[in-house]
Design a protein that fits this description.
InterPro entries: DUF4198. Helices cover 4% and strands 50% of the residues. It is mainly beta. The protein has one domain. The strands form three sheets. Strands 2, 5, 6, 9, 10, 11, 13, 16, 17, 19 and 20 form an eleven-stranded mixed β-sheet that branches. Strands 1, 3, 4, 7 and 8 form a five-stranded antiparallel β-sheet that branches. Strands 12, 14, 15 and 18 form a four-stranded antiparallel β-sheet that branches. It is globular and about 65 Å long.
């Protein structure tokens, strides 16, 4: 089991092939009811989590697994009032002090196939349930380890200094500029990281929500530079989704040397200037 968990933190050299996220029909996302909250007493934001083809339209609930909330100065917080419905999962987050907060939902999975009695079967599991999914005596024919992260950012009052430390496993977007209190005409710099290290020359998809109500997709593709950095220009108001994938295509791998895949997506709000 430890080998599997270690594989989820594979070095960036192993995850060399980039898989465009636009190939995914369904997009996972976290969406706060406000990205900038104000108040003199208790300040709370509510975050919804879903997966959909039409961005920010509730189609299927996104399972909330390991939630990590980091506040100003590295403050660690716990979500409250978690709830689950068919089309969404939700939670509340109390913002105790001024500044910016990062919210991450992190999950991992193992999938593949095995042969038993001349029959090939597929399996999907978590690292914790893997031993229950593969029968004794089965011959593994493919073994793929995946990690997935959804992010969003909120602030209480002014965003303050942006100084988030990398979470250090899988793919993640590290903001280098303010990513809340945004207006059209602003821009934000990011660094794409894989296991805490910059991931260069990688495709990043930027999509604006609201496709249900217009004909144009509102999508652009960017690439990270040698330092793993890229800049998003917020040209129009709206809710935005940024995503990237890395990993090996197809099915293969063994328990000792699994194939690796990782994905990240993040959501942002841009208001009219």
């Amino acid at each position: 089991m430890r080998k599997i968990l270690t594989a989820l933190s594979v070095a960036s050299g192993v995850l060399s092939a980039v898989v465009p996220l636009t190939a995914q029909a369904h997009m996972p996302w976290l969406l706060p009811n406000a990205t900038v909250a104000t108040g003199n007493k208790e300040v709370v934001v509510t975050v919804d989590a879903a997966v959909s083809e039409d961005l920010f339209i509730f189609e299927r609930a996104l399972k909330l697994e390991t939630l990590r909330v980091t506040g100003p100065g590295g403050l660690k917080l716990e979500p409250q009032n978690r709830s689950s419905a068919r089309n969404r999962e939700s939670f509340d987050l109390n913002l105790p002090q001024e500044g910016s907060y990062r919210i991450s939902n992190v999950s991992s999975a193992v999938m593949g196939s095995y042969k038993l009695g001349g029959e090939t079967k597929r399996f999907r599991a978590t690292p914790e349930t893997l031993d229950k999914e593969i029968p004794a005596g089965a011959e593994l024919t493919s073994f793929v380890v995946t990690s997935s992260r959804q992010q969003t950012f909120v602030s209480r009052e002014a965003p303050g200094k942006i100084d988030f430390a990398p979470e250090g496993e899988g793919l993640e977007l590290l903001p280098l500029d303010a990513v809340t209190d945004l207006s059209n005409g602003d821009h934000s710099r990011f660094r794409l990281l894989l296991d805490g290290k910059p991931l260069a020359d990688t495709a990043v998809t930027v999509r604006r929500g609201g496709n249900r109500y217009r004909y144009k997709m509102g999508e652009i593709t960017l690439k990270t530079d040698a330092r793993g950095e890229f800049t998003a220009d917020w040209t129009e108001p709206g809710a935005y989704w940024i995503g990237a994938n890395a990993g090996e295509r197809g099915m293969g791998g063994t328990r000792e040397k699994p194939m690796q895949r990782a994905s990240v997506s993040a959501t942002f709000e841009v208001l009219p200037r």
